[in-house]
């Protein structure tokens, strides 16, 4: 017991001695501290007692000791969301939040580009798209190469048409008008007179006469031929053109008048040798009216009239001659009138100073004056003139009907296979005012 008691006393003694030692250490630190200073609460377990900051008692100054520098290898764990600071710039967030937002640099959001549009983007140095748009391309044809496929073609309309997706083009009938064509040279026609296939060119009247074998169609000069429109000017222009061609070609020319009814209101004039032909006495009809001549011929050159009809419209004239041939101051030689019919006229045909003429297959029907009159005052011997295969029929309503043939000449006249008919109280006959040789053969 005494030994155990001794041990207990010794433990208490040494424990008391340890506490006295600690108390001495604390007192020693307090004694060494500057006046008016106290120890702040430790902010770290590093260092002795973790002292970091010493604050004056009167809080007049704070002295910060150097910060601790800890290597990243000594830091472990994961930063908590609450510890995340706020970020600014291209990527932003709120403090204490891990939700990051990319800054908006282009407000034009959406889809760009398509079948008919090309997208355009603007990118800054950071690789961010700052602008975007879709643009319809405009590409000059000079920058395109190759050919479009037929399936890519749209439908064409207007003067040239084609279906969608087809290369087969069509020019509708009547599309090409005169105004669409290039100007032609004055007083010319467009055609090819080379004798072989070639592009058309402007031809002179001489070249046209050669190319068309001296035939001019009255339709080219605007005749209508419907019996209503006045075709006088158009027919005269066609006659003039044929005469110009005859002069240029130094030979006869032919005017062709197609089938139709051609109203004329003044006489047609011919002063050059040519041929005027129609489509037949039942098809091509000249329609004068009133007391006017239909055709006046004043040339010494041979001339031919054939295959047409002249029928006066309305009331029968009381004067005028349908066809007059008069070579003033000279003789007309070898004129021929064939396959012509004259209806409802006053006088049919008058030949003055004409020699070696031929009237063949001519019908002058229902005339009121004279059918045919020959007069050659410049030369009593008018030459051999012939009437063949013809008929002259007077109007039955005219009691003062003249002669079927009146001959005022000393020359010869030969009549064959011809019929003269009187329809009234007058007589259709031969009437001679001079002694002349007439060969009656019918």
What structural class should be given to the helix and strand makeup? Answer: alpha/beta
* Radius of gyration from CA coordinates: 64 Å
Quick check: average pLDDT?
Answer: 78
| CATH fold name of the domain at 261-441 | Pectate Lyase C-like
What profile does the largest beta sheet have? 14 strands, parallel
Q: Specify the overall morphology.
A: rod-shaped
Span of the ends, CA to CA: 205 Å
Written account of the structure:
The protein is α/β, with parallel strands linked by helices and 442 residues long. It has a domain of 181 residues: 3 Solenoid (Pectate Lyase C-like). It is built from three helices and 32 strands. The radius of gyration is 64 Å and the shape is rod-shaped. The chain starts with a helix and ends with a strand. The C terminus is likely disordered.
What is this structure's SSE topology?
Layout: H1 2-32, E1 37-39, E2 53-56, E3 62-64, E4 91-92, E5 101-102, E6 118-123, E7 129-135, E8 189-191, E9 201-203, H2 205-211, E10 215-217, E11 226-230, H3 232-249, E12 253-256, E13 260-263, E14 268-270, E15 274-277, E16 284-287, E17 295-297, E18 304-311, E19 321-326, E20 332-333, E21 336-343, E22 347-352, E23 354-355, E24 358-367, E25 372-375, E26 385-388, E27 391-394, E28 405-408, E29 412-416, E30 419-421, E31 430-432, E32 437-441
Parallel strand pairs: 10-12, 11-13, 12-15, 13-16, 14-17, 15-18, 16-18, 17-19, 18-21, 19-22, 20-23, 21-24, 22-25, 24-26, 24-27, 25-28, 26-29, 27-30, 28-31, 29-32
Antiparallel strand pairs: 1-2, 2-3, 4-5, 6-7, 8-9
Helix pairs in contact: 2-3
């Amino acid at each position: 017991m005494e030994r155990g008691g001794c041990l207990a006393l010794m433990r208490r003694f040494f424990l008391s001695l340890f506490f006295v030692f600690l108390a001495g250490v604390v007192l020693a630190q307090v004694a060494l501290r500057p006046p008016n200073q106290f120890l702040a609460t430790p902010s770290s377990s590093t260092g002795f007692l973790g002292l970091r900051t010493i604050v004056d008692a009167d809080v007049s100054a704070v002295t910060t000791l150097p910060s601790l520098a800890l290597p990243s290898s000594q830091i472990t764990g994961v930063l908590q969301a609450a510890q995340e600071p706020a970020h600014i710039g291209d990527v932003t967030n709120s403090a204490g939040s891990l939700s990051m937002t990319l800054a908006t640099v282009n407000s034009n959001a959406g889809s760009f580009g398509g079948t008919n549009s090309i997208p355009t983007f603007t990118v800054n140095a950071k690789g961010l798209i700052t602008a975007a748009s879709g643009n319809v391309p405009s590409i000059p044809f000079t920058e395109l190469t190759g050919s479009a496929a037929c399936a890519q073609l749209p439908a064409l309309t207007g003067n040239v048409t084609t279906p969608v997706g087809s290369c087969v083009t069509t020019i509708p009938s009547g599309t090409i008008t005169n105004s669409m064509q290039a100007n032609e040279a004055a007083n010319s026609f467009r055609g090819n007179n080379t004798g072989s296939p070639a592009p058309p060119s402007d031809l002179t009247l001489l070249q046209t006469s050669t190319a068309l074998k001296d035939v001019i169609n009255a339709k080219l000069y605007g005749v209508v031929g419907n019996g209503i429109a006045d075709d006088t000017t158009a027919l005269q222009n066609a006659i003039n053109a044929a005469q110009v061609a005859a002069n240029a070609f130094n030979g006869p020319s032919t005017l062709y008048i197609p089938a139709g009814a051609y109203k004329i209101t003044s006489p047609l004039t011919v002063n050059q040798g040519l041929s005027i032909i129609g489509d037949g006495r039942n098809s091509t009809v000249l329609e004068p009216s009133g007391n006017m001549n239909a055709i006046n011929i004043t040339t010494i050159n041979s001339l031919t009239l054939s295959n047409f009809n002249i029928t006066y419209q309305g009331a029968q004239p009381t004067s005028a001659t349908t066809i007059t041939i008069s070579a003033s101051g000279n003789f007309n030689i070898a004129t021929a009138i064939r396959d012509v019919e004259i209806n409802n006229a006053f006088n049919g045909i008058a030949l003055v100073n004409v020699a070696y003429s031929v009237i063949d297959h001519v019908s002058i029907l229902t005339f009121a004056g004279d059918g045919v009159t020959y007069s050659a005052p410049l030369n009593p011997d008018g030459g051999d003139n012939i009437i063949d295969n013809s008929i002259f029929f007077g109007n039955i309503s005219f009691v003062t009907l003249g002669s079927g043939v009146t001959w005022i000449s000393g020359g010869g006249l030969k009549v064959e296979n011809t019929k003269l008919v009187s329809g009234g109280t007058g007589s259709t006959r031969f009437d001679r005012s001079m002694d002349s040789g007439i060969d009656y053969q019918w």
